[in-house]
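#lab-general

N.A. 3:47 PM
ok so I finally got the sequence cleaned up, no stray characters, all 322 residues accounted for. can someone with queue access submit it? mine expired

B.Y. 3:52 PM
send it over

N.A. 3:53 PM
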Amino acid sequence: MLRRLQQLLFFLLALFVVYLLVVRLLITWVQYAPNQFFSYIEKLNDAQIQVERIDVEQNWLGLKFDIRQLRYRDADVTAALQEAKGDFNIFSPFIYDVSYGQKLQVTGLKLAFSDTALNQPGAQPRSFQLDSLNIPFSKLWRAMTLKDIVFDVPVENDTSGQVAIENFQTYRGLKWSFGGVASLVSPQGDVSRMQMKGDFATDSWGRLAEGEMNTNLLTPLILESLYQMMPQAWSKKLPTGELLGDLKLQMRRGQLSKLNVTTSAQDLVWPQNDELLPKSIGLALNWTAENQFKGDALENWRFEVERIRLGRRYVQSVSPIL
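B.Y. 4:20 PM
back already:
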């Protein structure tokens, strides 16, 4: 038994040494022959890659890099990068509590996806759930800065909208803290900006454990932009106008414990009976769950309406929406 254990340890050690050698060879290849390296990647992925400048500096823990004016294109993705610089620890994939590096800065990244990339044949839509957010945040770079990140998202009728990160910064000390401003751009060119900030403590596995996040719209969201994601039969009966709102979220013991949404629609124009219907509507929603404090917060949950405002009047009694 002891001999087999020794053989296993030697085998794992050999794999680790081979990994280090391969990584060092790849870094050296990129460092001294970048054109040859990217030419090989182009053939491997059937893609086109152009790089104006790439600087790589090796150290004992890994490397420091500075990439400028990178362009990538294949059948599904088109990307353009102004600059990316930072460091990478080559030991991080093997040691759980070692982060990828100390700093990462990405500036001027634009990604565009084709319709075939987003709509694969036979692909089933996936719903987002907070309990499936198992990103090991403790492994991310200790400090990250993202500026001018743009995602082009195709919509109907061969048009596209944009989701942009204007400025987003994170820092991991005793807590994982973040803050930034993002924007949504509709195919018609309407821009809505939102601000977000939060502080979270992580558990022993690097996942979010306790903390809170606040998000609020800095500029109104045009309702017509939301209607493009709805059936046309619905959108024809809904009013045009603008939407403002705030969201406050809290987590305790790795579970969602509190979620409050305050929203207000203004300058409403109704398709029918416009003179009789309110020109503004306000809602205050409170998220609750039956098993909120038993570890199953995302089962049997609902939003309860705390306040409703129609025009300048508040509804005195409100029945919860289940």
